[in-house]
Amino acid sequence: MKIVRSIAWRFMMKGTEKGHFSLLTLFSWLAIGVGIAAMCGLLSVMYGFESSLKSKVLNAYPHIIVSPAEGGNSIEDDPQVLKKISTHRRVTRTVPFIEREMILQSRTRSLGGVIWGLTLKDFDRVQKGIVEGEIPRENSEVPEVVLGRELAHRLNLNIGEKVKVISPTTKVGLMGSVPKSETFKVSGFYVSGHYEFDEQYLYMLKEDAQDLLGWNKKISGYHLWTSQMDDADSVQMSLSLVLSSDLKAESWSVFNAALFQSLKLEQYCMSTILSFAILIAIMNIVITLMMHVTHKRKNIGILRALGASKAQIQSIFVWQGTWMGIVGLSLGAVLTLLFIIYVKYLSKYQLPEIYYDRTIPIDIRPISFLVIFISAVGFIYLATLFPAKKAAKLDPIEAIRE
Question: What is the pLDDT of residue 9?
């Protein structure tokens, strides 16, 4: 077997009829290396975008939301329901909240937005994202709110200025039914890292939101966090079994389903497209080996005359294809490493301003790399079989006579 491998290596390095290095061999190496590096590098970037987006979405939103079933917009803040949810062994935090679409009006313009009402003790998560100002105070003369920084920019508001929040809930006055409204003071700006969230949401105290909506002690539901983000789906399913029919539980993968499914679809499509590039590289190996079989007819005839069996001749060309694959895959690994180092540490390319972190994210998943390399090895082996069998069938007498 050692002699077979040695001959296979020699055939690969001296693939022409005159015993020179064949450019077809070099192109085969490059085709495999570039194809593997393109797939590994692109998937690392796409996984990086997925992980980055997931962390930013979950920095803004909870892992699970318990809310009224279809048709309802509020529920009573029931201590029994809160206890039932909070005692789940994988639920680490439960927060009652109010969420409602409103009209926000500054001195220069009006926009649609969403208010998020929380109790003061639950503002500790918001506190981490405050980039200017502070969280609302309970004893303030004018009720205070925290705005997403992008929303504040769109409304042209600064710290200390007033914003009018107009509720869809109506009240009866001298002029008939008119929308309820309240003026709030801007106490701080919040950044979650999720652009769409920061341009829509406004935080206020739960009591202020209840007064604005006329909800008394009602809430929109409960925000839940689990010990592990990936546990959210299983926790949501178990909660659905114990909650009453007028409540529903949705995990982050449900209320962001369209976003993450589109990312998965994009990953699948790009992987499929790049798989064709690797298949073309493998076809290149078949063509190269076929050329080598033609160029080495005399050598094959001499080996057969010296006693080499058909199985050994077949093994020589299988090993030649294997050596080509090993060199190509090694080149692919080096190119992948160089690509990741360049993108992560050396590239000066900046993403559009809509992204808070404008560097290209990279997420290395060794299992994906392993699957790609193992699949490539399997296809390369299959690609060597036809040329190897063709070489084994050559008539040694005819080959020597030529």
Answer: 84
